[in-house]
């Protein structure tokens, strides 16, 4: 999968006075190098508005807390409780995995739905398939029982109001999350496990995983390649 080279424009400057040609002299810092050119006054004002908007967006993004897997896990757990159909920890983890996969399919590239790079937020290969360790440790108290409430630490710390804005910056909405979660959450949990076990990205490490190794992460580039190349990636095994 080819990645497009990005040009980083740090700042746009211009003098609001015309030269002998009737144009405005401008300068930009492009990939750390200053570039000068001339444009009309109207274009200069348009460019200025674009960069001001981009600057405000960057400031808002910097102020927003990072999106973690636990945020989506809490949303799923709460959604299912409100629907009167509480989920379980295995289905929660596998649904989180498929939401990440659906997000990459939607975006058409290897990209994480989540901002956090904490070790506890990295998708790992475990015996029952993909697991986000932080989500596991928070929800493990329910064991195999239905998730009847958010963990106490999440009740205290989780801010659902941040979700909509965070997802908007990711190019999706809560409606997308709902569509993906309801595609998988009600599938039998062990059928979900079986689906993930048939993915080559898990199978290639199955021997080590089944010996108890819990430190093998998913490579999102590799995962995305399999999503694109495997037409059965999102399908259940025929019974």
TrEMBL record:
Keywords attached to this entry: Plasmid
Domain Antitoxin SocA-like Panacea residues, every copy: 92-202
InterPro entries noted in UniProt: SocA_Panacea
Pfam families noted in UniProt: SocA_Panacea
Species assigned in the record: Jeotgalibacillus malaysiensis
Protein name: Antitoxin SocA-like Panacea domain-containing protein
């Amino acid at each position: 999968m080819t990645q497009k080279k990005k040009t980083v424009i740090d700042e746009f400057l211009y003098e609001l006075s015309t030269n002998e040609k009737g144009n405005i002299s401008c300068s930009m810092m492009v990939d750390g190098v200053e570039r000068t050119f001339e444009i009309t006054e109207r274009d200069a004002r348009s460019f200025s508005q674009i960069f001001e908007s981009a600057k405000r967006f960057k400031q808002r993004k910097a102020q927003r807390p990072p999106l973690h897997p636990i945020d989506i896990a809490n949303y799923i757990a709460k959604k299912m409780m409100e629907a009167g159909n509480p989920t379980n920890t295995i289905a929660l983890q596998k649904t989180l995995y498929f939401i990440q996969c659906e997000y990459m399919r939607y975006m058409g590239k290897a990209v994480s739905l989540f901002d956090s790079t904490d070790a506890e937020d990295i998708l790992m290969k475990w015996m029952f398939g993909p697991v986000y360790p932080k989500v596991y440790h928070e929800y493990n108290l329910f064991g195999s029982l239905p998730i009847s409430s958010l963990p106490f630490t999440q009740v205290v710390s989780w801010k659902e109001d941040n979700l909509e804005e965070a997802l908007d910056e990711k190019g999706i909405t809560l409606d997308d999350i709902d569509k993906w979660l309801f595609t998988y959450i009600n599938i039998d949990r062990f059928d979900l496990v079986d689906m993930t076990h048939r993915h080559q990205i898990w199978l290639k490490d199955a021997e080590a995983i089944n010996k108890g190794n819990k430190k093998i992460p998913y490579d999102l580039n590799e995962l995305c390649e399999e999503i694109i190349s495997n037409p059965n990636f999102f399908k259940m095994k025929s019974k």
